[in-house]
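Example 3.2
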Amino acid sequence: MSGGSYYVPATSKWPILGSLAVGTMMVGTGSVLVHGRGTLVMGLGLVGVLAVMALWFRDVIKESRQGLYDAQMDRSFRQGMGWFIFSEVMFFAAFFGALFYVRTFALPWLDGEGAKGVAALLWPDFTASWPLLDPPGDVAGPVETFSPWQLPLVNTLILVGSSITLTVAHEGLKEGYRATTRNWLFVTLLLGISFIIIQGVEYYEAYHHYGITLQAGIYGATFFLLTGFHGAHVIIGATILAIIFIRVLRGHFAAENHFGFEAACWYWHFVDVVWIGLFLFVYVF
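Structure, written as C-alpha cells:
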C-alpha cells in the first residue's frame, strides 16, 4: 500500500473455534426450545463462546501493546465497531417496530377499525387501549403497570449520568489525566451496576405484585423483550467497562492511542440512547 503499511494478522485458530462454539450453543438452545432438553450442550457452547472471546481479545490486546497495529488497522477496528453498533440498532429497531405495529395497527383492528375490523367478531366487547390490561380470550393481563416516575426514572437518571461520567473519563484520557480517567470510569462502572440491580428489583416487583410476566399478553411480552434485551446489553457494557478499567489501571492506553477505550464509550452511549427510547415508549407513552 503506497505511503503506509498493511498489517496481515498471523494465522489464528479463534475464528473456527468461535464458530464451533456458537454452533454448539445454538444446537443446544434449539434442543431446549423444541424438546425441553439439551441444557448441557447449550451451557458447554456458551462457555466455549466466552472462552474464545476472552482468549481472542487477549491476543488482540497483546498485539496492540506490541505496536503491531498501524493507522490502517485502526480504521479497520473503527469500521468494524461501527457496523457492529449498526447491527445492534437494527436489532432493537425490530422490537420497537413490533411494539409500534401492535399499538398502531393490531389493537385498532381488533377493536373493529378499518378493513380488518372483522377481527372484532371474535371479541365484540374488546376495547383497544395501551397498556392492554385486559387482553381478549383466556390470556391473563397485568394487574397494573409501573409508574414511569419511580424506578424507571431513577434508572434513566443513572444511565444519563453514566454517559456524562464516561465522557469526563474519556476527556481526561485524551488530556493525559490518568487519575481523572480512572476515577470517573470507576464511577461509570458503579452506575452501570446500580442500573442492573434496580432493574432486578423492578422485575421482581413486576412478577410478584404487578402481574407483568412473559405470559401477560402482548404488553408483558413486549415489556420483557425490550427491557430484558436492553438489560443484557447493559451487563455486556458493564463487563466491557470493567475490563477497560483494569487496563487503565495497568496503563494500557495513551492520549493519542486508545481506541479500545473509545469503542467501549461508543457502545455504552448506544445503550444509553436505547434506554431513553424505552423509557419514553414503554413506560411513559
